[in-house]
Design a protein that fits this description.
Elements: H1 2-20, E1 30-34, E2 40-42, E3 46-53, E4 59-66, E5 69-71, E6 73-74, E7 77-79, E8 86-96, E9 99-110, E10 116-127, E11 134-140, E12 143-148, E13 155-159, E14 166-171, E15 178-184, E16 187-192, E17 197-202, E18 208-213, E19 223-225, E20 230-233, E21 238-242, E22 249-254, E23 265-271, E24 274-279, E25 284-289, E26 295-300, E27 321-327, E28 332-337, E29 342-350
Parallel strand pairs: 2-9, 10-26
Antiparallel strand pairs: 1-3, 3-7, 4-5, 4-8, 6-7, 8-9, 10-29, 11-12, 12-13, 13-14, 15-16, 16-17, 17-18, 19-20, 20-21, 21-22, 23-24, 24-25, 25-26, 27-28, 28-29
């Protein structure tokens, strides 16, 4: 009896392993292979693609797609034309032996062209509060609204941009580090940096109406809107779309050039389908296609900080260019920096 028991204890795991070996997942039978083993392409590139058929299954049909949109296969090549750029997943739906399986492959889709370089002409200079660590800047009619950062120094205010006179101000609790702002539907929206919370105020009374929490976005950096949805940067390559009624994140774009995915978008401004984004800790502003994420231009604001009065506690990596607002009636941009003493009105043109 003891011998039979020992034999059974040996046979059971062997039988178990034998049964398990036949339960191979269909997706393990195939793999997507790119010609040249590429990992990134440009928009409108054609790439060679094939399916590695590991068990020589009889494949009946293959369909490729990105973001749910089918990509036709012609002569074993795919024309990559996607609505948004950045990190993508190519899906292949394979029909074989009466079964259907989906497999996937990561692919980075970059811009077709390198960003164009822009420069600026100073039109006017106005006073700016050196106690304002600027994080958000936006015009409503002819009034400038500003949100600032640093714990204990964060506030929201509206002011006369020509004189610096403050009309109204709300100081944030000292536990919050204020960030970007935007104005939509008679409300002001303001982010905080790492607390995962933003605030909503009444535009006329400055009374706080509500709080909102972030979803998948990592932090609060910049805000702007196109009249329908709110755009939010979070310190990553993503710029999120927020529903202004629910403040839920309903999608995103990724900011990319022709050579890389870029993750430095800070303060935001929306003008005619483009997002103007301060580049964190750099004297430059990106011009981003708000639909695709393509960085179409870069404005070089180098030399602007040389016009600032720098105090003894000036920090080159902290007191940087930040804050951009467009004045639609004047058709000019207003830019400043963190604790700068000047607000610049500028015209932007290609270099």
């Amino acid at each position: 009896m003891r011998r039979i028991k020992n034999i059974s204890s040996i046979l059971i795991p062997i039988l178990f392993l034998a049964c398990g070996s036949g339960n191979q997942k269909p997706s393990s039978l195939f793999d997507i292979t790119f010609e040249g083993n590429i990992k990134q392409v440009h928009q409108n590139d054609e790439i060679g693609v094939s399916i590695e058929n590991r068990k020589d299954k009889e494949i009946e049909h293959i369909t490729y797609s990105i973001d749910g949109k089918e990509i036709p296969l012609k002569e074993n090549k795919l024309l990559i034309n996607v609505s948004t750029l950045g990190n993508k997943i190519l899906m292949a739906k394979i029909k074989f032996d009466g079964e259907t399986v989906e497999i996937k492959k990561s692919l980075k889709v970059l811009s077709e062209k390198a960003p164009e370089i822009y420069t600026y002409t100073i039109i006017n200079e106005y006073p700016h509060d050196t106690g304002a660590y600027t994080q958000g800047l936006e015009f409503h009619n002819d009034t400038l609204y500003e949100g600032t950062g640093k714990k204990g120094r964060s506030f929201l205010r509206k002011l006369n941009y020509k004189t610096g006179e403050v009309f109204e101000q709300i100081d944030l609790d000292k536990s919050y580090f204020g960030e970007g702002i935007t104005i939509l539907n008679n409300k002001i929206y303001q982010l905080t940096w790492q607390s995962g919370m933003g605030f909503i105020y009444d535009l006329k009374t400055f009374k706080k109406l509500d709080n909102f929490q972030y979803g998948k976005s990592r932090e609060g950096w910049g805000l702007t809107n196109d009249g329908k949805k709110i755009f939010k940067s979070d310190g990553t390559e993503k710029i999120w779309f927020l529903n202004p009624e629910t403040m839920m994140e309903e999608g995103y774009i990724e900011t990319v050039t022709n050579s890389s995915v870029f993750n430095k978008a800070n303060e935001l401004e929306y003008v005619d389908g483009k997002l103007y984004a301060n580049v964190y800790q750099k004297p430059s502003v990106m011009i981003i296609n708000s639909a695709s994420g393509s960085i179409e231009g870069v404005i070089n604001f180098g030399g602007l900080s040389d016009k600032i009065t720098k105090t003894e506690d000036w920090n080159e990596t902290d007191n940087v260019l930040n804050g951009i607002a467009y004045h639609p009636e004047r058709e000019t941009f207003f830019v400043t920096g963190k604790d700068w003493d000047i607000l610049f009105e500028v015209k932007i043109q290609k270099k």
